[in-house]
């Protein structure tokens, strides 16, 4: 007897042979301490004032929006229970104010979900997103909360059908997936290389006038031809600054990508940066839905994208973004 396909198994259950109604949606705020800080201390990234604390004629308003996080790691987990006893777990990206995500999930999303068939992931995603479409809430806390729910629903579907997520999404394209390690110093980079990583990622967000580029040079020299260095700038540069420093990165020869060089809102400048540099321009952690990525792709504003599945609407939305990226010939990380 042939084993039914994933689609056939889902359809079999959907014909009423097995109910899978959502009975409870529970957000859970979790916190773990950062060993080097007290729980009531704050982490400031970047410092208050401006990206590099520099002041000069013609300096613009602080665009880095200083983020202040409590001295612990925190997130919002989502537990969804069905009438068949199958439980799914998801995560809503919540480095700051995770109680807001919990409130959004409890007061806004749960009423949409309770009593619905957990297998109807696509329609449920649209109902959640559309509930605030006319209010203009299409990113941030809202899509992060949707992401937590969506991931939990996919977890339920995988358990219901009895297959891993990659099979639900169409099957595996490869047996191994490359990953990168952290490498903010030459020592850390070499340690990552020795552990088997072929790339390391480091911060590059202090802006012009800092020692950031010198640090990148040291890590680049340490890595050499053993791998690549990925630099993440958290929107630290203006366009002309990003082009200038990006061309210096080009000369190092092993910079894998230049990530979030500009403000997230400065979408008009990203195509100019792509055109100016040999180093790949990476964008995506700050974008939270397919419509933002559509605009970025259509203007060729990135060569690599790296959306966060627990931030950009979950598995459902990230699969759409991935398919769109492939259509435009843009790499995905």
UniProtKB/TrEMBL annotation:
Domain Mandelate racemase/muconate lactonizing enzyme C-terminal: 186-280
Pfam families tied to this protein: MR_MLE_C, MR_MLE_N
Transferase is among the record's keywords: no
Keywords (A to Z) from UniProt: Lyase
Alphabetical list of InterPro entries matching this protein: DgoD-like (IPR034593), Enolase-like_C_sf (IPR036849), Enolase-like_N (IPR029017), Enolase_C-like (IPR029065), Mandelate_racemase_C (IPR013342), Mandelate_racemase_N_dom (IPR013341)
Cross-referenced Gene3D superfamilies: Enolase-like C-terminal domain, Enolase-like, N-terminal domain
GO molecular function, one term: lyase activity
PANTHER family, sorted: D-GALACTONATE DEHYDRATASE (PTHR48080:SF2), D-GALACTONATE DEHYDRATASE-RELATED (PTHR48080)
Protein name: Mandelate racemase/muconate lactonizing enzyme C-terminal domain-containing protein
């Amino acid at each position: 007897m042939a084993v039914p396909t994933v689609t056939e198994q889902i359809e079999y259950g959907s014909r009423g042979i097995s109910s899978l109604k959502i009975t409870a949606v529970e957000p859970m705020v979790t916190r773990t301490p950062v060993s080097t800080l007290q729980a009531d201390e704050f982490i400031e990234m970047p410092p208050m004032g401006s990206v590099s604390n520099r002041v000069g004629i013609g300096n613009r308003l602080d665009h880095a929006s200083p983020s202040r996080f409590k001295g612990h790691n925190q997130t919002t987990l989502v537990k969804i229970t069905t009438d068949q006893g199958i439980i799914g777990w998801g995560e809503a990206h919540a480095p700051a104010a995770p109680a807001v995500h919990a409130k959004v999930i409890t007061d806004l999303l749960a009423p949409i979900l309770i009593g619905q068939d957990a297998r109807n992931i696509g329609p449920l995603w649209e109902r959640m997103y559309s509930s605030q479409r006319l209010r203009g809430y299409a990113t941030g806390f809202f899509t992060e909360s949707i992401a937590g729910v969506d991931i939990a629903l996919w977890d339920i579907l995988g358990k219901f059908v009895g297959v891993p997520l990659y099979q639900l999404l169409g099957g595996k394209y490869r047996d191994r997936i490359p990953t990168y390690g952290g490498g903010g110093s030459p020592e850390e980079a070499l340690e990552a290389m020795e552990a088997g990583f072929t790339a390391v990622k480091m911060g590059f967000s202090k802006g012009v006038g800092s020692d950031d580029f010198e640090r990148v040079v040291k890590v680049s020299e340490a890595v050499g031809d053993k791998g690549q260095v990925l630099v993440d700038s958290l929107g630290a540069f203006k366009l002309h600054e990003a082009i200038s420093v990006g061309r210096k990165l080009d000369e190092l020869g092993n910079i894998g990508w230049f990530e979030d060089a500009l403000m997230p809102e400065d979408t008009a400048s990203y195509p100019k940066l792509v055109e100016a540099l040999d180093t790949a321009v990476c964008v995506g952690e700050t974008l939270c839905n397919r419509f933002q990525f559509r605009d970025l792709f259509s203007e060729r504003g990135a060569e690599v994208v790296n959306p966060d599945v627990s931030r950009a609407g979950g598995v459902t939305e990230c699969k759409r973004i991935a398919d769109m990226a492939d259509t435009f010939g843009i790499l995905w990380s």
